[in-house]
Amino acid sequence: MKPSDRIFCALDTVETASAVALAKKLQGTVGGVKLGLEFYCANGADGFKAVAETGMPIFLDLKFHDIPNTVAGAIRAVAPLGPKILTIHTQGGPEMMRRAAETAAEEASKHGNDKPWVAGVTILTSMDGDDLQAIGVNDAVADQVARLAGLAHKSGLDGMVCSPREITLARQATAPDFKLVVPGIRPVGSAAGDQKRVMTPAEAVTAGADVLVIGRPITQADDPAAAARAIAGSINS
Ligand SMILES: O=c1ccn([C@@H]2O[C@H](COP(=O)(O)O)[C@@H](O)[C@H]2O)c(=O)[nH]1
After folding, report:
1. Interatomic CA distance for residues 197 and 182, integer angstroms
2. I need a labelling partner for 44 at 20 to 30 A (CA). Which of 14, 63, 76, 225 fits?
3. Pick from 222, 216, 213, 221: which is nearest to 30 by CA?
């Protein structure tokens, strides 16, 4: 796999036209784009379809977190769009994750699409140990991520979302082919912003990340395609 193919650029905007323009500019410099809550709440399925028309593979990052029946219904609703990756929260528990995985597989075959990877979000990369304690989780971030990783794998998910700092332990708690989707990526010199558990692109790939999710270091650059190329180059070297 080329280093650039591992990069999914987060298009966090409410404007379909900006997302489409950026997706076009990034053609050939990244493996796909990510549409998340901000974009989908503003533009819904029509916005998704407009970006999909550029030909870019799409990671639909809606982080479903609800009872099993509701999450299954949400997956049925977005499955016809044919996303390459979908996210749910692992904290919804094993039954919710099982239903999500089953539903994604059934719906993909019904609509003639490739089965999306269903990836479980563990602990958001914007959180640290103090944030976990504040919500009543007294374990260290690493221990909680390892627990959720094992649960996600046993529940039939295709992969998980974790910070680059937990890649090694996530791999140990799952399997060699379990997809590790990794935000919290900051090239040397980039502002961390609200991200608390970060590493550089090269460090994350060396540790074993399958997909690097990178937003602002690309989208806020003067030349986003050049920024994406520089990131891919840093992974290569
Ligand atoms: O734990 C998580 C889960 C998802 N994200 C998403 O990734 C991007 C990161 O964007 P940057 O601009 O590179 O910080 C963003 O869309 C988040 O919603 C995450 O950061 N952490």
Report:
1. 11
2. 225
3. 213
Tell whether ligand 1 has an atom less than 6 A from the beta carbon of residue 151: no
User: Ligand 1 centre from 172 Cα, in Å?
Assistant: 23
**Residue 215 in marked binding region:** yes
Q: What is the pLDDT of residues 17-50, one digit of tens each?
A: 999 999 999 999 999 999 999 999 999 999 999 9
195 annotated as a binding-site residue: yes
* Among the listed residues 169, 173, 181, the one whose alpha carbon sits nearest the alpha carbon of residue 210: 181
Structural domain contains residue 237: no
Instruction: Judge whether 140 lies within some domain.
Output: yes
What residue numbers bound the domain in which 174 lies?
3-232
115: domain CATH number? 3.20.20.70
Whether ipTM tops 0.95, in short, is: yes
- Please report whether residue 26 resides in a domain: yes
Which residues face 213 on adjacent strands?
Answer: 8
- Put simply, whether the predicted model's pTM sits higher than 0.95 gets the answer yes
Of residues 185, 11, 169, 161, the one with CA closest to residue 91:
161
Distance 137 CA to ligand 1 centre (A): 22
How many CA atoms lie less than 13 Å away from 128 in the CB half-sphere? 6
What's the structural domain count of the chain? 1
Q: Is residue 169 part of a domain?
A: yes
pLDDT digits (tens, 9 = 90+) for 70-118: 999 999 999 999 999 999 999 999 999 999 999 999 999 999 999 999 9
